Amino acid sequence: MAEKSFKYVIIGGGVAAGYAAREFSKQGVKPGELAIISKEAVAPYERPALSKAYLFPESPARLPGFHVCVGSGGERLLPEWYTEKGIELILSTEIVKADLSSKTLTSAAGANFKYNVLIIATGSTVIRLSDFGVQGADSKNIFYLREIEDADKLIEAIKAKKNGKAVIVGGGYIGLELAAVMQINNYDVTMVFPEPWCMPRLFTPEIAAFYEGYYAKKGIKIIKGTVAVGFDSNSNGEVTSVKSKDGRSLDADIVVVGVGARPLTSLFKGQVEEDKGGIKTDAFFKTSISNVYAVGDVVTFPMKMYNDVRRVEHVDHARKSAEQAVKAIFASGDGKTIDEYDYLPFFYSRSFDLSWQFYGDNVGDAVLFGDSDPASPKPKFGSYWIKDGKIVGTFLEGGTPDENKAIAKAARLQPAIPSVDELAKVGLAFACKI
Ligand code: FAD
């Protein structure tokens, strides 16, 4: 069988791989030294677009428009860019075996790839309802969203079931974004999730109340406190309804499930140290094996600010961890060191004409400020999270770029607050003065 050797191999061709490639180029990688091996058929792109503009009925985002690194305002790396730089993009190739002792990866087609240095950037995969044996979960027109292929299948169904009914299972950001785009596609939308409010891992009940109120205004129905326990289908095997644990039956032409993701670490099980479900690395994204690095969704890394180790499934960290790892690889080659990764968590989402950003840690007491009335013509509000008298987390809906910078700075600098009442009254102006 075919065998190819590279100095550096990145396994996975998503966000982290694309940003790593750009950093490799900046660091002066030579033609032929680097390969990216990806299961996907296209060059690295900004994955968040898949649940947003990619699904719009009018002027949808399409490749090559959103290849990395446009999402962070950088150069767009078209497939030709990789060719020009002598970076080999090995697409539509799934690695099914990784032997870290012989430094060999094997593809599903049986090809072997050898490397000196490996970067693991396999990201996450969706959690499926069929994993829990939910009855009827493999019916047609039940969709999950991770890769461009998934989004393309959903678009075909949106067209085929025109103006139909959609049920969104899951109340996280994927559920919220999907509910919005399905409504924009003129679907009658119902969301179902077990928690008492949407985005419970981040939102306070007050923040959630705004989004739920706003969605209700758009005609989206939200059923909370129950789960999907089964699906009915017609003679073609297409889903027709979702059954909930509390005894409802919700008509559905399309179901989109967003119930979480799982890091893709299985190829490396028993070969590298793991922690908290991810591949454990140091502050330079080096794993327990010295020539193997891991970046993006798969890694559990030291979160210096909070003296903790964490795994983060957000695009900003995918970009920054990739850059840090490549810088560290080149620095160590030159016998130099670089600063430790000092990450400030950052997460955002957009739906309808809403847009929020979150920075820092959502621990301690939350202090809401601003106008969070979903009926307002121009709602704008936020929240601070306060711990030991200091701001540790910040959230803002509808911020300008400068205001978002200000809340990021507040979460980074963790200033002491005057009093909770005063902070609630001053609101955003407090962060803007730091
Ligand atoms: P990925 O981008 O998932 O890339 C992993 C790559 O590895 C894929 O190409 C995959 O096919 C490939 N791969 C996996 N296993 C193998 C194998 N065995 N062989 C070969 N290739 C393999 N984050 C935000 O902060 N804000 C958002 O608004 C937001 N929106 C999102 C919307 C959607 C629909 C999704 C799915 C994610 C969103 N995220 C968002 C999360 C963000 O996209 C991820 O955190 C980010 O993509 C992680 O980058 P990564 O490179 O680690 O993994």
> What kind of sheet is the major sheet?
7 strands, mixed
Structural class assignment: alpha/beta
Distance between the termini: 61 Å
Mean pLDDT: 97
Range of helix content: 10-25%
Small ligands present: flavin-adenine dinucleotide
**Shape assignment:** globular
Q: Count the beta strands.
A: 26
InterPro entries: FAD-oxidoreductase/Apoptosis, FAD/NAD-bd_sf, FAD/NAD-binding_dom, FAD/NAD-linked_Rdtase_dimer_sf, MDHAR3-like_C
Cofactor: FAD
Organism: Stephania yunnanensis
Domain Monodehydroascorbate reductase 3-like C-terminal: 344-431
Structure overview:
GO terms for molecular function: monodehydroascorbate reductase (NADH) activity. The chain has 434 residues and is an alpha/beta fold. The protein is 23% helix and 30% strand. The chain contains 9 helices and 26 strands. The chain has helices spanning 15-26, 79-85, 148-160, 173-184, 205-217, 315-333, 401-413, 420-426, 428-432; strands spanning 3-11, 34-37, 88-90, 95-99, 104-107, 112-120, 124-126, 142-143, 165-169, 188-193, 221-224, 228-233, 239-244, 249-251, 254-257, 261-263, 274-275, 278-280, 292-294, 299-303, 308-311, 346-351, 354-360, 365-371, 380-387, 390-397. Strands 1, 2, 3, 4, 5, 6 and 19 form a 7-stranded mixed beta sheet that branches. A 5-stranded parallel beta sheet has the order 8-15-9-10-11, covered by helices on one side. A hairpin with a 4-residue loop joins β4 and β5. The longest helix is centred in the last third of the chain and has 19 residues, at 315-333. The termini are far apart. The model has no long low-confidence stretch (mean pLDDT 97). Bound molecules: flavin-adenine dinucleotide (FAD). Flavin-adenine dinucleotide is lined by residues 11-17, 37-40, 47-48, 50-51, 94-95, 121-124, 145-147, 174, 264, 267, 296-297, 313-316, 318, 347-349. Residues 11-17, 37-40, 47-48, 50-51, 94-95, 121-124, 145-147, 174, 264, 267, 296-297, 313-316, 318, 347-349 line the site of flavin-adenine dinucleotide.
